[in-house]
Structure to design on (327 residues):
C-alpha cells in the first residue's frame, strides 16, 4: 500500500518520509512548499498542493493507490498563532476538515495525525499522561485539540482508524540535509545567537525547578519519525483503531541545561559572549512539561532511544551543513 504524507517536505515530515521508506513503505508527498523544501523528499513523488485542495487530494489518492495518510501539514508557531488566530483555524482546522472529507470519500481508512503537547496547555503535574486535562492556552494548541476531536467524530461515521500523536519538544536531525532550517525552536534559536557571537536568551530563571528555568521533554526527530512508522504499521495490522498517545522521552531537561549542552557541542562554552542572559518570563510558559510515554510503549512497543547530547550534536551538524550551502 501507499501512504500519503502531507507536509512531507518539512522538517519533521521529511524525517517521517525517510523512516517510512526505510521500513519498506511506498510514499507520496503532498506539500504546498510554503515552508517545506523540495529537495528534502529526494526521489519520492511530490504533489505541490494545499491539503484543502480536495480535487488534487482525491486525484493523488487514486493515481498512487493511497490507502493511508500521515498528516503533518500545519502551522505550528505558538507566538504566530496568537497574532494570526484565523490563519491557524483556516490552515489547521479547515485544512484537516477538507483533507478528511477528500480521503474518506476516496476510501482511505487509516490516518496518522500530527498533534502536539500544546493541547495540554500548562499542566501542573510531574508527568503528563493522556488522561491529563487538555486545556490549551493558545490558538495553536486549540487547533490541534479540535483536530483530535474531529478525528474522533469522523472515525465512527466513516470506518476510519487513526492514531493522534502528541509531540513534545522535537529537536535533532537524522540526516544533515533534513535538519530544522527555522529558528522558532530552542536549539536552532541558540545556534543563531552563537553563530552571530551574541548571547542566547533564557526566558525566566525563577521558576520552581532545580535551576530556575523551564523544564521540557526534548525528543529526537528520528524517534518521532519511528513513532509514525510504528503507528502506521499498527493501523495496517489492525492492532489499534483510535489511539491518542504522547511522543516523548519521559525525561525532563531544563532550558539552561540545553543551552549549556549547545555551548559545549558548538565549542563556544569558554567564550564570554556565549553566556546566556536572562530575559523576562514569557506569558503562559509552564514551569515543567514532561511526557509520560508509557501508553505508546504499551500499545506500539515504541520507546525513544536518543538523548539530548545526540539531539544537539546532530542538529549542529545540520546547521553547519546548511551554512556551507549558503556561503
Amino acid at each position: 500500500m501507499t501512504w500519503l504524507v502531507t507536509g512531507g517536505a518539512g522538517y519533521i515530515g521529511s524525517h517521517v518520509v525517510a523512516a517510512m521508506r526505510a521500513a519498506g513503505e511506498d510514499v507520496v508527498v503532498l506539500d504546498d512548499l510554503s515552508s517545506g523544501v523540495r529537495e528534502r523528499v529526494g526521489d519520492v513523488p511530490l504533489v505541490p498542493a494545499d491539503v484543502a485542495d480536495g480535487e488534487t487530494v482525491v486525484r493523488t489518492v487514486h493515481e498512487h493507490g493511497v490507502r493511508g495518510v500521515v498528516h503533518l501539514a500545519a502551522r505550528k508557531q505558538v507566538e504566530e498563532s496568537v497574532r494570526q488566530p484565523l490563519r491557524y483555524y483556516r490552515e489547521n482546522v479547515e485544512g484537516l476538515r477538507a483533507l478528511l472529507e477528500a480521503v474518506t470519500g476516496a476510501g482511505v481508512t487509516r490516518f496518522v495525525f500530527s498533534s502536539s503537547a500544546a493541547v495540554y496547555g500548562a499542566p501542573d503535574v510531574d508527568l503528563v499522561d493522556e488522561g491529563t486535562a487538555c486545556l490549551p492556552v493558545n490558538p495553536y494548541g486549540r487547533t490541534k485539540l479540535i483536530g483530535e476531536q474531529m478525528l474522533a467524530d469522523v472515525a465512527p461515521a466513516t470506518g476510519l482508524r487513526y492514531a493522534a500523536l502528541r509531540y513534545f519538544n522535537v529537536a535533532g536531525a537524522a540526516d544533515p540535509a533534513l535538519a530544522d532550517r527555522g529558528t522558532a525552536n530552542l536549539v536552532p534559536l541558540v545556534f543563531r545567537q552563537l553563530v552571530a557571537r551574541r548571547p542566547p536568551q533564557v526566558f525566566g530563571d525563577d521558576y520552581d525547578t532545580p535551576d530556575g528555568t523551564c523544564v521540557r521533554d526534548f525528543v529526537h526527530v528520528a524517534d518521532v519519525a519511528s513513532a509514525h512508522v510504528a503507528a502506521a504499521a499498527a493501523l495496517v495490522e489492525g492492532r489499534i483503531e483510535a489511539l491518542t498517545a504522547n511522543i516523548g522521552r519521559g525525561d525532563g531537561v531544563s532550558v539552561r541545561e540545553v543551552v549549556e549542552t549547545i555551548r559545549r557541542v558548538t565549542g563556544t562554552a569558554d567564550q564570554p559572549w556565549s553566556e546566556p542572559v536572562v530575559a523576562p518570563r514569557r506569558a503562559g510558559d509552564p514551569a515543567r512539561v514532561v511526557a509520560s510515554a508509557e501508553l505508546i510503549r504499551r500499545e506500539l512497543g515504541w520507546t525513544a532511544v536518543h538523548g539530548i547530547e545526540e539531539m544537539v550534536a546532530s542538529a549542529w551538524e545540520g546547521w553547519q551543513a546548511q551554512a556551507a550551502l549558503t556561503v
